[in-house]
Amino acid sequence: MAELLQIMVAVVAVGSLYALIALGYTMVYGILKFINFAHSDVFVLGAWVSLVLSVMIISALKLAPGSSPPLWIAPLVLIAAMVVCGLVGFAIERLAYKPLRKAPRLNVLITAIGVSLLLQNVGQLTGFAVAKDDDGKTIATVPFGPSPKRMPSLLPETAAPDPNLAKPLVLIQPVDVFIFVSAIVLMVGLQYLVFRTKFGAAMRAVSFNTETAALMGIRVDRVISVTFVTGAMLAAAAGFMYALKYPGLNQTAHETWVLLGLKAFVAAVVGGIGNVRGAVLGGFLIAFIEFMGMYCFSKYLDPVLHTNMGTNLRDVYVFAMLIFVLLVRPAGILGSQLKEKV
Amino acid sequence: MGENETILEVRDVSVRYGAIRAISNVSFSVKRGEILTLIGSNGAGKTTTLRAISGMVRCTGNVRFMDQEIAGTRPDVLVTRGLCHCPEGRGIFANMSVEENLNLGAFIRSDKHEIEKDKQRVFELFPRIKERLKQNAGTLSGGEQQMLAIGRALLARPKLLLLDEPSLGLAPQLVQTIFKIIREINAQGVSILLVEQNAHMALQVAHHAVVLEVGKVAMTGLASDLAKSDEVRKAYLGHG
User: Fold this and answer.
1) What's the number of domains chain A is made of?
2) How many CB pairs under 8 A join A and B?
3) Tens-of-pLDDT digits for all 342 residues of chain A?
4) Residues B180-191: pLDDT tens digits?
5) pLDDT at position A160, please?
6) Are B103 and A198 a contacting pair at CB < 8 A?
7) DSSP class of residue A100?
8) Is there a domain that residue A215 lies in?
9) Residue B3 above 70 pLDDT?
10) Could you tell me the end-to-end alpha-carbon distance of chain B, in angstroms, rounded to an integer?
11) Which B-chain residues 154-193 have CB contacts (< 8 A) with chain A?
């Protein structure tokens, strides 16, 4: 029971990350009908920008050794990373995708892969030093360089439980709470934007029929821009949270990032691509399947098979889930299965 | 014809889709306060003409709306100037409620009270829309969707309304209703450019008419005169 609850904590935290990234995929698909393959790289950028900013702020504060950084750094870095990635998202759309508005979808798709490779590789360049430690050694660069780095911890950690006391049922780290709360705030905010505001109505109109939306007086290019920026900001938030939870960040072209982005994309597809609520549902569902798969396989199958691969197969559960959903409900769980009435 | 009397002037407008000329050198003008109908058979270029006027396709030639050149202006800009295009196939946002569709019609406006008044006006014209406000627009019948599309266009307070085949696919009785309402809208001061395949009804409500044949203007004149002309009767009204 305690084990299961502990897994649920991880599911909620990781599910929040998948959901935030999936929202960007789904929003852009909903409006432009193409998969923005560069989206997961904006997420990586968000993680690395968070790392660099945190290091810069902490080194500028000159904290006494051993003291934990003040709590206000986390929200500040979160917002700053969102702004940086929002601007990058805006630039990507303007420079790479907008010129291709009337081009065949395949051209845009290939361009997206190109943008993705560009971001991955520029991120790995040996960069300019932006922060140095007391010995004058460079500790943060922009771009981020070819080797992994460690995100400083910005939130306090719950101490390991005292063995003399009764064992707590579950251990919830402040980082998990922070991730969950921020993700919920962002997702509720997005729901409000899309379903309750005039601008959201314009977004949905453009998503349904771009031509008719323009006939309503909606400035389609502006809606597309805002959609990209919003998606990029959500990805940046996910990047920041990822860096908090898993502080060892691989270089930007590392395969772990590709896999993470892919799983978030799977979440969007499973939920029903183009559907905002579907992306959130898909994100949590994918995380649930991933962690429950690991738990169940390790606990029940590994002993029988005399293997030890329950954890190694974590990606397999996710993609098996994808195949299953595509077979049973090809449009995704919340995707519309019906054609409009003519 | 004085400048002030003409709300829309189309001169020598041509549109190409790749190598195909959809319309060539189409010219006509719509007077302020009138209904002008564009009739012709399938593929004559009626819809293309409307799309050229509202900036949905590129065209050559001149389009003047309220004494301003508008050829090449984006559709969303034209809406703010009072030129509204109600597209063929109704263009309902089937992923939204009827009410949200109506609100999108007033997207360019922020005068809440006036919008509310205009909505009441739309409800008077189309009482059935009012009953279905919360319903998903995709579940409306064809006739209701058409009413919603026209009502939605009215909420932008158009000075000139481009209507593309409002009677398409509707039961004869509904066609009557729609044309009655088109007349009412016109009586309230909105100039209308009406594209129709139902030449019989169109010539009854319109003041002037233009006949398009394979992308060219074949005839222009008073609607009542054209309705009597032998060629029109033979080709479009089904009178041998």
Assistant:
1) 1
2) 73
3) 788 999 999 999 999 999 999 999 999 999 988 899 999 999 999 999 999 999 999 999 888 777 788 999 999 999 999 999 999 999 999 999 999 998 998 999 999 999 999 999 999 998 888 888 888 888 899 999 999 999 998 988 776 666 666 667 788 889 999 999 999 999 999 999 999 999 999 999 999 999 999 999 999 999 999 999 999 999 999 999 999 999 999 999 999 999 999 999 999 999 999 999 999 999 999 999 999 999 999 999 999 999 888 889 999 999 999 999 999 999 999 987 655 443
4) 999 999 999 999
5) 67
6) yes
7) G
8) yes
9) no
10) 36
11) 156
Neighbours of B65 (CB within 10 A): 23
Which positions in chain B touch A209 (Cβ < 8 Å)? 91, 93
Domain assignment of residue A243, yes or no: yes
Domain CATH number, residue A280 = 1.10.3470
Q: Within an 8 Å CB–CB cutoff, is residue A207 touching chain B?
A: yes
Contact at 8 Å (CB) between A81 and A243?
A: no
Q: Tell if the CB–CB gap between A212 and B93 is shorter than 8 Å.
A: yes
For residue B64, which phi and psi values (nearest 5 degrees)? -115, 125
Per-residue DSSP letters for B154-178? Answer: HTT--SEEEEE-TTTT--HHHHHHH
Are A217 and B108 in contact (CB < 8 Å)? yes
- How many Cβ atoms are within 10 Å of A8's Cβ, its own excluded? 16
Compare CB distances from A215 to B54, B89, B94 and report the shortest one's residue.
Answer: B54
Q: Which of B57, B93, B148 to mutate to test the interface with A (most CBs of A within 10 A)?
A: B93
Any domain includes A159: no
B143 touches chain A (CB under 8 A): no
Q: Considering only residues 12 to 51 of chain B, which have any Cβ-Cβ distance to chain A shorter than 8 Å?
A: none
Helix axes A276-296, A314-328, angle to 10 degrees: 130
Burial B166-180 (b: 16+ CB within 10 A, else e): bbbebeeebbebbbe
Residue A167 domain-assigned (yes or no):
no
What interface predicted TM-score (ipTM) does this complex get?
Answer: 0.92
> Which residues are bridge partners to B213 per DSSP?
B216
- Tell me the residue length of chain B: 240
Shortest Cα distance, chain A CAs vs residue B200, angstroms: 24
- List of chain A residues whose C-beta atoms are within 8 Å of the C-beta of residue B100: 201, 204
Within an 8 Å CB–CB cutoff, is residue B76 touching chain A? Answer: yes
> Nearest-CA residue of chain A relative to B95?
A208
Using CA atoms, how far residue A66 sits from A150, A217, A322, B115, in Å, is 16, 58, 45, 63
Asked if the C-beta of B72 comes within 8 angstroms of chain A's C-beta atoms, the answer is no
Task: Please give the average per-residue pLDDT across B109-115, as a whole number.
Answer: 95
Q: CA–CA separation, A197 vs A191, rounded Å?
A: 10
Q: Which domain holds residue A252?
A: 2-153+173-328
Report which secondary-structure segment, H or E, holds A77.
helix A73-92
- The distance of A172 to chain B (nearest Cα, Å) reads 40
Nearest CA in chain B to A199: B107
Cβ–Cβ below 8 Å for B84 and A341: no
Give the distance from residue B199's alpha carbon to the nearest chain A alpha carbon, in angstroms: 23
